Amino acid sequence: MREDGIPNVVGVALGSGSARGWAHIGVLQGLEAIGVRPQVVAGTSIGALVGAVYVSGQLDEFAEWVQTLSARDVFNLMDFTLSGGVVKGERLFGFFEERHKNPEIKSLEQRYVSVATEMKSGREVWITHGPILPAARASCALPGVFPPVKFDGRWMLDGGLVNPVPVSAARALGADVVIAVNLNAQLVGAHLARPPPEEPEVETPAKVERTLWQRAVTYLSSGDGENPSFFDVVGASVNIMQDRITRSRMAGDPAEITLAPALDDYALMDFHRAGQAIAEGRRLVEENAAMIRAWAGLPALEEDAPESD
After folding, report:
1. Architecture of the domain defined by 10-191+208-294
2. Which residues form the active site (predicted)?
Protein backbone atom coordinates (compact mmCIF):
# COMPACT_ATOMS: atom_id res chain seq x y z
CA MET A 1 0.00 0.00 0.00
CA ARG A 2 1.36 3.43 -0.94
CA GLU A 3 1.57 6.30 1.54
CA ASP A 4 -1.49 7.94 -0.03
CA GLY A 5 -3.55 4.81 0.72
CA ILE A 6 -3.77 3.70 -2.90
CA PRO A 7 -2.90 0.02 -3.47
CA ASN A 8 0.45 -0.68 -5.09
CA VAL A 9 0.50 -1.14 -8.84
CA VAL A 10 2.06 -4.57 -9.37
CA GLY A 11 4.11 -5.25 -12.46
CA VAL A 12 5.93 -8.28 -13.80
CA ALA A 13 9.18 -8.23 -15.77
CA LEU A 14 9.29 -11.43 -17.81
CA GLY A 15 12.82 -12.11 -18.98
CA SER A 16 14.39 -13.72 -22.01
CA GLY A 17 15.55 -17.32 -21.97
CA SER A 18 14.27 -19.27 -24.98
CA ALA A 19 12.59 -22.58 -23.97
CA ARG A 20 12.99 -21.80 -20.28
CA GLY A 21 10.42 -19.08 -20.88
CA TRP A 22 7.57 -21.53 -20.45
CA ALA A 23 8.23 -20.99 -16.71
CA HIS A 24 6.59 -17.57 -17.17
CA ILE A 25 3.30 -19.37 -17.73
CA GLY A 26 3.56 -21.04 -14.34
CA VAL A 27 4.54 -17.80 -12.63
CA LEU A 28 1.54 -15.93 -14.06
CA GLN A 29 -0.85 -18.76 -13.25
CA GLY A 30 0.60 -18.92 -9.75
CA LEU A 31 0.15 -15.19 -9.20
CA GLU A 32 -3.49 -15.38 -10.26
CA ALA A 33 -3.97 -18.34 -7.90
CA ILE A 34 -2.80 -16.30 -4.87
CA GLY A 35 -4.92 -13.31 -5.82
CA VAL A 36 -2.22 -11.13 -7.38
CA ARG A 37 -3.10 -9.83 -10.85
CA PRO A 38 -0.32 -7.67 -12.32
CA GLN A 39 -1.54 -4.42 -13.83
CA VAL A 40 1.72 -3.98 -15.78
CA VAL A 41 3.35 -6.67 -17.94
CA ALA A 42 6.77 -6.03 -19.46
CA GLY A 43 8.36 -8.76 -21.54
CA THR A 44 11.58 -9.48 -23.38
CA SER A 45 11.87 -12.21 -26.03
CA ILE A 46 9.97 -15.32 -24.85
CA GLY A 47 8.75 -13.17 -21.94
CA ALA A 48 7.16 -10.76 -24.42
CA LEU A 49 5.37 -13.66 -26.14
CA VAL A 50 4.02 -15.26 -22.94
CA GLY A 51 3.11 -11.82 -21.59
CA ALA A 52 1.18 -11.04 -24.78
CA VAL A 53 -0.84 -14.25 -24.44
CA TYR A 54 -1.54 -13.46 -20.78
CA VAL A 55 -2.83 -9.91 -21.23
CA SER A 56 -4.93 -11.14 -24.17
CA GLY A 57 -6.76 -13.50 -21.81
CA GLN A 58 -5.53 -16.74 -23.38
CA LEU A 59 -2.94 -18.04 -20.91
CA ASP A 60 -4.66 -21.23 -19.72
CA GLU A 61 -5.49 -22.37 -23.25
CA PHE A 62 -1.94 -21.58 -24.32
CA ALA A 63 -0.54 -23.56 -21.38
CA GLU A 64 -2.59 -26.60 -22.38
CA TRP A 65 -1.36 -26.38 -25.96
CA VAL A 66 2.38 -26.02 -25.25
CA GLN A 67 2.23 -29.00 -22.90
CA THR A 68 1.05 -31.18 -25.78
CA LEU A 69 4.08 -30.34 -27.93
CA SER A 70 6.54 -33.15 -28.58
CA ALA A 71 10.08 -32.69 -29.85
CA ARG A 72 8.81 -33.78 -33.27
CA ASP A 73 6.02 -31.15 -33.16
CA VAL A 74 8.56 -28.42 -32.40
CA PHE A 75 10.78 -29.59 -35.25
CA ASN A 76 7.85 -29.59 -37.67
CA LEU A 77 6.99 -25.98 -36.74
CA MET A 78 10.47 -24.79 -37.66
CA ASP A 79 11.05 -23.51 -41.20
CA PHE A 80 14.79 -23.52 -41.63
CA THR A 81 16.63 -20.88 -43.62
CA LEU A 82 20.08 -19.43 -44.19
CA SER A 83 18.84 -15.83 -44.38
CA GLY A 84 19.43 -13.94 -41.13
CA GLY A 85 19.06 -16.99 -38.88
CA VAL A 86 18.67 -20.76 -38.77
CA VAL A 87 14.90 -20.68 -38.13
CA LYS A 88 12.81 -18.37 -40.30
CA GLY A 89 9.87 -18.36 -37.88
CA GLU A 90 7.06 -17.84 -40.41
CA ARG A 91 5.58 -21.29 -39.88
CA LEU A 92 5.88 -21.13 -36.10
CA PHE A 93 4.38 -17.67 -35.67
CA GLY A 94 1.83 -18.22 -38.43
CA PHE A 95 0.59 -21.32 -36.62
CA PHE A 96 0.52 -19.36 -33.37
CA GLU A 97 -1.37 -16.38 -34.81
CA GLU A 98 -4.03 -18.63 -36.35
CA ARG A 99 -4.95 -19.89 -32.89
CA HIS A 100 -4.68 -16.79 -30.72
CA LYS A 101 -6.32 -13.40 -30.55
CA ASN A 102 -4.32 -10.38 -31.67
CA PRO A 103 -5.82 -7.33 -29.89
CA GLU A 104 -4.52 -3.78 -30.03
CA ILE A 105 -2.21 -3.10 -27.09
CA LYS A 106 -3.96 0.18 -26.27
CA SER A 107 -7.29 -1.64 -25.90
CA LEU A 108 -6.06 -3.96 -23.16
CA GLU A 109 -7.13 -3.76 -19.52
CA GLN A 110 -3.53 -4.32 -18.40
CA ARG A 111 -0.56 -2.24 -19.53
CA TYR A 112 1.85 -4.12 -21.79
CA VAL A 113 5.28 -3.41 -23.25
CA SER A 114 7.49 -5.55 -25.47
CA VAL A 115 11.23 -4.79 -25.37
CA ALA A 116 13.18 -5.11 -28.63
CA THR A 117 16.54 -3.95 -29.99
CA GLU A 118 16.75 -1.74 -33.07
CA MET A 119 19.25 -3.40 -35.38
CA LYS A 120 20.55 -0.22 -37.04
CA SER A 121 21.25 1.83 -33.91
CA GLY A 122 21.44 -0.80 -31.18
CA ARG A 123 18.90 1.17 -29.17
CA GLU A 124 16.41 -0.34 -26.77
CA VAL A 125 12.87 0.00 -28.12
CA TRP A 126 9.71 -0.23 -26.01
CA ILE A 127 6.69 -1.25 -28.09
CA THR A 128 3.41 -0.16 -26.50
CA HIS A 129 1.14 0.22 -29.53
CA GLY A 130 -0.29 -1.74 -32.42
CA PRO A 131 -1.43 -5.38 -32.60
CA ILE A 132 0.13 -7.34 -29.75
CA LEU A 133 1.47 -10.43 -31.54
CA PRO A 134 3.73 -8.54 -33.99
CA ALA A 135 4.97 -6.49 -31.03
CA ALA A 136 5.89 -9.67 -29.16
CA ARG A 137 7.47 -11.24 -32.22
CA ALA A 138 9.72 -8.21 -32.71
CA SER A 139 11.31 -9.02 -29.35
CA CYS A 140 12.02 -12.68 -30.26
CA ALA A 141 14.64 -12.35 -33.02
CA LEU A 142 17.50 -14.17 -31.28
CA PRO A 143 20.69 -13.59 -33.33
CA GLY A 144 21.89 -16.70 -35.09
CA VAL A 145 18.57 -18.50 -34.59
CA PHE A 146 15.67 -16.24 -35.66
CA PRO A 147 16.13 -13.51 -38.29
CA PRO A 148 15.40 -9.83 -37.59
CA VAL A 149 11.76 -8.72 -37.67
CA LYS A 150 10.58 -5.51 -39.34
CA PHE A 151 8.33 -3.41 -37.08
CA ASP A 152 7.21 0.14 -37.93
CA GLY A 153 9.73 0.21 -40.76
CA ARG A 154 12.69 -0.71 -38.55
CA TRP A 155 14.53 -4.02 -38.24
CA MET A 156 14.33 -5.40 -34.72
CA LEU A 157 16.50 -7.92 -32.88
CA ASP A 158 15.90 -9.80 -29.64
CA GLY A 159 15.25 -7.54 -26.66
CA GLY A 160 17.57 -9.67 -24.54
CA LEU A 161 20.54 -7.96 -26.22
CA VAL A 162 19.83 -4.77 -24.27
CA ASN A 163 17.38 -5.56 -21.44
CA PRO A 164 17.07 -9.26 -20.59
CA VAL A 165 14.82 -8.69 -17.53
CA PRO A 166 12.84 -5.48 -18.25
CA VAL A 167 12.35 -4.09 -14.74
CA SER A 168 12.92 -0.55 -16.02
CA ALA A 169 10.17 -0.91 -18.62
CA ALA A 170 7.70 -2.14 -16.00
CA ARG A 171 8.47 0.85 -13.78
CA ALA A 172 8.10 3.24 -16.71
CA LEU A 173 4.56 1.94 -17.23
CA GLY A 174 3.67 2.75 -13.63
CA ALA A 175 4.57 -0.32 -11.56
CA ASP A 176 5.25 0.45 -7.89
CA VAL A 177 6.24 -3.14 -7.17
CA VAL A 178 8.02 -5.29 -9.76
CA ILE A 179 8.19 -9.07 -9.71
CA ALA A 180 11.07 -10.03 -12.00
CA VAL A 181 11.51 -13.47 -13.54
CA ASN A 182 15.18 -14.03 -14.36
CA LEU A 183 15.63 -17.12 -16.54
CA ASN A 184 19.38 -16.71 -16.97
CA ALA A 185 20.64 -16.75 -13.38
CA GLN A 186 23.40 -19.31 -12.73
CA LEU A 187 23.26 -20.64 -16.30
CA VAL A 188 26.77 -19.81 -17.48
CA GLY A 189 28.44 -23.10 -18.42
CA ALA A 190 25.25 -25.10 -17.94
CA HIS A 191 24.01 -25.24 -21.54
CA LEU A 192 23.57 -28.65 -23.13
CA ALA A 193 21.78 -29.24 -26.43
CA ARG A 194 19.66 -32.19 -27.43
CA PRO A 195 19.21 -33.39 -31.01
CA PRO A 196 15.76 -33.19 -32.62
CA PRO A 197 13.90 -36.45 -33.17
CA GLU A 198 15.03 -38.44 -36.16
CA GLU A 199 12.51 -39.68 -38.68
CA PRO A 200 13.03 -42.61 -41.05
CA GLU A 201 14.76 -41.34 -44.16
CA VAL A 202 12.92 -42.25 -47.36
CA GLU A 203 14.89 -41.05 -50.35
CA THR A 204 12.04 -39.96 -52.62
CA PRO A 205 12.15 -36.75 -54.67
CA ALA A 206 9.44 -35.21 -52.50
CA LYS A 207 11.43 -35.82 -49.33
CA VAL A 208 15.02 -35.20 -50.39
CA GLU A 209 14.99 -31.51 -49.39
CA ARG A 210 13.34 -32.25 -46.05
CA THR A 211 15.82 -35.06 -45.33
CA LEU A 212 18.76 -32.77 -46.03
CA TRP A 213 17.36 -30.18 -43.63
CA GLN A 214 16.87 -32.85 -40.96
CA ARG A 215 20.49 -33.86 -41.29
CA ALA A 216 21.62 -30.24 -41.12
CA VAL A 217 19.53 -29.47 -38.05
CA THR A 218 20.70 -32.65 -36.31
CA TYR A 219 24.26 -31.53 -36.98
CA LEU A 220 23.56 -28.05 -35.59
CA SER A 221 21.80 -29.44 -32.52
CA SER A 222 24.12 -32.22 -31.37
CA GLY A 223 27.80 -32.22 -30.50
CA ASP A 224 30.12 -35.19 -30.87
CA GLY A 225 30.62 -35.78 -27.17
CA GLU A 226 33.75 -33.64 -26.98
CA ASN A 227 32.99 -30.59 -29.10
CA PRO A 228 29.94 -28.32 -28.57
CA SER A 229 27.20 -28.10 -31.18
CA PHE A 230 26.15 -24.91 -32.97
CA PHE A 231 23.19 -24.43 -30.63
CA ASP A 232 25.49 -25.14 -27.65
CA VAL A 233 27.71 -22.26 -28.73
CA VAL A 234 24.79 -19.89 -29.41
CA GLY A 235 23.04 -20.81 -26.17
CA ALA A 236 26.14 -20.47 -24.02
CA SER A 237 27.07 -17.15 -25.64
CA VAL A 238 23.57 -15.76 -25.09
CA ASN A 239 23.58 -16.96 -21.48
CA ILE A 240 26.92 -15.26 -20.76
CA MET A 241 25.89 -12.01 -22.41
CA GLN A 242 22.46 -11.81 -20.79
CA ASP A 243 23.77 -12.81 -17.36
CA ARG A 244 26.27 -9.93 -17.41
CA ILE A 245 23.74 -7.40 -18.72
CA THR A 246 21.09 -8.53 -16.22
CA ARG A 247 23.48 -8.22 -13.27
CA SER A 248 24.44 -4.71 -14.32
CA ARG A 249 20.93 -3.42 -15.01
CA MET A 250 19.30 -4.96 -11.96
CA ALA A 251 22.06 -3.61 -9.70
CA GLY A 252 20.99 -0.12 -10.72
CA ASP A 253 17.24 -0.81 -10.75
CA PRO A 254 16.50 -3.90 -8.64
CA ALA A 255 13.10 -5.54 -8.54
CA GLU A 256 11.27 -5.88 -5.25
CA ILE A 257 11.02 -9.63 -5.86
CA THR A 258 13.16 -11.73 -8.21
CA LEU A 259 12.18 -15.28 -9.11
CA ALA A 260 14.84 -17.48 -10.71
CA PRO A 261 13.46 -20.79 -12.06
CA ALA A 262 15.83 -23.74 -11.63
CA LEU A 263 15.93 -24.94 -15.24
CA ASP A 264 19.65 -25.10 -15.91
CA ASP A 265 19.34 -28.38 -17.84
CA TYR A 266 17.12 -26.78 -20.51
CA ALA A 267 18.68 -26.40 -23.94
CA LEU A 268 18.00 -23.50 -26.28
CA MET A 269 15.29 -25.28 -28.29
CA ASP A 270 13.73 -27.51 -25.61
CA PHE A 271 10.26 -26.08 -26.24
CA HIS A 272 8.75 -29.56 -25.90
CA ARG A 273 9.51 -29.60 -22.15
CA ALA A 274 6.83 -27.10 -21.15
CA GLY A 275 5.29 -29.13 -18.34
CA GLN A 276 8.35 -29.09 -16.12
CA ALA A 277 9.00 -25.39 -16.71
CA ILE A 278 5.41 -24.41 -15.94
CA ALA A 279 5.46 -26.46 -12.75
CA GLU A 280 8.69 -24.77 -11.65
CA GLY A 281 7.17 -21.32 -12.20
CA ARG A 282 4.14 -22.20 -10.08
CA ARG A 283 6.36 -23.69 -7.37
CA LEU A 284 8.36 -20.48 -7.06
CA VAL A 285 5.22 -18.40 -6.60
CA GLU A 286 3.77 -20.79 -4.02
CA GLU A 287 7.07 -20.75 -2.14
CA ASN A 288 7.12 -16.95 -2.05
CA ALA A 289 3.37 -16.32 -1.80
CA ALA A 290 3.46 -14.56 1.57
CA MET A 291 6.18 -12.12 0.46
CA ILE A 292 4.49 -11.46 -2.88
CA ARG A 293 1.12 -10.69 -1.28
CA ALA A 294 2.79 -8.45 1.31
CA TRP A 295 4.50 -6.39 -1.39
CA ALA A 296 1.20 -6.19 -3.26
CA GLY A 297 -0.45 -4.79 -0.11
CA LEU A 298 -2.67 -7.83 0.37
CA PRO A 299 -3.33 -9.69 3.65
CA ALA A 300 -1.68 -13.04 4.22
CA LEU A 301 -3.49 -16.12 3.00
CA GLU A 302 -5.06 -18.25 5.73
CA GLU A 303 -2.49 -21.02 5.31
CA ASP A 304 0.31 -18.45 5.67
CA ALA A 305 -1.12 -16.69 8.73
CA PRO A 306 0.64 -17.42 12.07
CA GLU A 307 -1.26 -19.69 14.43
CA SER A 308 -2.81 -18.02 17.47
CA ASP A 309 -2.42 -19.42 20.98
Report:
1. 3-Layer(aba) Sandwich (3.40)
2. 45, 158
